[in-house]
Write a structure and sequence with these properties.
alpha/beta; Alpha-Beta Plaits; 6-stranded parallel β-sheet; 22 strands; globular
């Protein structure tokens, strides 16, 4: 597929990296010469230094023959104008990253069709929704649901006192219990592996487990964790993410204390939210946090615009016994360090945006795609509609590409956690966990 990406910032760079691994024909456009040089030095793709909303630049990039345009600059108007031009030039799929709610609210006079856009990505909304999911499953550093929650893919950080430390995967639980869950990946610092049964779990590893919904409690007990209900949550930062999260939690009747350091902004937030308590304080001082009730909170979510403020606030909260802390971390290089220093979960605006775009790109027999923070991997749900390369054979004989495994099989209303002797049948839906180098092969072979 020929794809033009406008914007070579972190979103564009992340997308270009992932899509180039899948052998797409890519062109990246950016007005910043330094960003263009950075991509050219790392990736073997075409790069054009210029304005992505310029018709001449888009023609130079081959817009007439492009299958998709992804406009991911930090300027809404550039993204929307590029999509409008691409629409006029016959590009089938157009994606725009847009932050201003005036362009996508229900009261907007312009529709997506008017703007020439097939998908509008709202970065802050994506992050607020992601944090909400994490808070609803308090033990998770990541949580993804398939089939209306029948199947869960859960990221769990392994603590120093976990009973599964230094145990080989093939020896976890009883034979009967192993029918209800499967560890599909282990993140060890900067490295992510798709393990076999001989792998061990170590302290501070982050394990990704696919399980049936009804088996989650048993899985947590095995790892030494409990899924407690979070009823009181403190939010540090009253920007778009903090506001969006507070509204989500209000709808779920969860008590929210929101802290914002700007006085005027605090007043505006207090007049907008219906149930939340809003405080005008600096959230990095332990005595102020204590005064505003942090000792009675079940969770702290730090979503200011400053990474260091978010990290420090979360570490302070964890130190005084807050059950769950979540930090907004915009520097991608920091992400692998967060589990090690004690942060339960992290979110990243640019990765959330890139992941939302990747989910849209997957089409054909692919039903859905889930992506994860801190690891380069995807969980892809596909429909096996006919006899093919992977049907009628035991999984252990399939010769899947390295870095991929079948995580779950859905047969009618039945959920199967598969192992070597399991067989994929026509009509099944399968969830495959794959590292980037395996994704293109998986999509290609299942679509035949």
């Amino acid at each position: 597929m020929k794809i033009i990406i406008i914007g070579a910032g972190e979103v564009g760079f992340n997308l270009a990296t992932r899509l180039s691994q899948e052998k797409h024909d890519l062109v990246v456009i950016d007005a910043d010469n330094e960003k263009c040089r950075k991509i050219e030095a790392v990736l073997d793709i075409s790069v054009i230094n210029g304005n992505g909303s310029s018709q001449s630049i888009l023609r130079e990039a081959g817009i007439e023959s492009a299958d998709m345009l992804i406009a991911a600059t930090t300027v809404d108007e550039v993204n929307l104008l590029a999509c409008m031009i691409a629409s006029k030039m016959g590009v089938r799929r157009k994606i725009a990253r847009v932050r201003n709610p005036e362009y996508y609210s229900n009261t907007s006079v312009l529709t997506m069709k008017d703007l020439g856009v097939d998908l509008l990505i709202h970065p802050e909304d994506e992050v607020a929704e992601e944090i909400t999911r994490l808070l609803m499953r308090s033990i998770a550093s990541e949580i993804v649901e398939f089939e209306d929650g029948k199947i869960l893919m859960v990221g769990i950080k392994i603590d120093a006192d976990s009973p599964i430390l230094n145990v080989q995967l093939k020896n976890l639980g009883t034979q009967e219990q192993r029918k209800n869950f499967r560890i599909v990946a282990i993140s060890k610092g900067h490295n992510t592996i798709v393990p076999d049964g001989n792998e061990y779990i170590n302290k501070n590893d982050q394990v990704f487990v696919v399980t049936k919904k009804e088996s989650l409690s048993e899985l947590l007990a095995m790892t030494g964790k409990q899924n407690k209900t979070l009823e009181k949550i403190m939010i540090l930062g009253g920007g778009k993410i903090g506001m969006g999260l507070a509204k989500n939690l209000e709808e779920r009747d969860i008590q929210v204390n929101l802290l914002e350091s700007d006085k005027e902004k605090s007043k505006q937030i207090a007049s907008t939210l219906k149930k939340s308590m809003v405080f005008n304080v600096d959230g990095t001082e332990i005595d102020l946090l204590a005064r505003e009730g942090i000792l009675n909170m079940d969770a702290l979510v730090a979503v200011t615009s400053d990474d260091e403020t978010n990290i420090i606030a979360c570490l302070l909260a964890k130190h005084i016994g807050v059950q769950k802390v979540i930090a907004l971390v915009n520097k991608v290089a920091y992400l692998p360090l967060m589990p090690v220093i004690g942060i339960d979960a992290t979110v990243n605006v640019r990765l959330a945006t890139a992941n939302a775009i990747l989910r849209f790109i997957r089409r054909g027999d692919i039903l859905s795609v889930a992506t994860f923070h801190g690891i380069d991997a995807e969980a892809i749900e596909l429909k096996v509609s006919r006899e093919g390369k992977y049907t009628g054979k035991m999984l252990k004989n399939l010769k899947l590409p390295e870095g991929a495994l079948v995580a779950a099989i859905l047969r009618g209303n039945e959920v199967l956690i598969p192992y070597g002797d399991s067989i994929i049948e026509p009509g099944d839906r399968v969830i495959i966990f794959a590292l980037p180098q395996a994704i293109h092969t998986i999509e290609d072979r299942f679509s035949r």
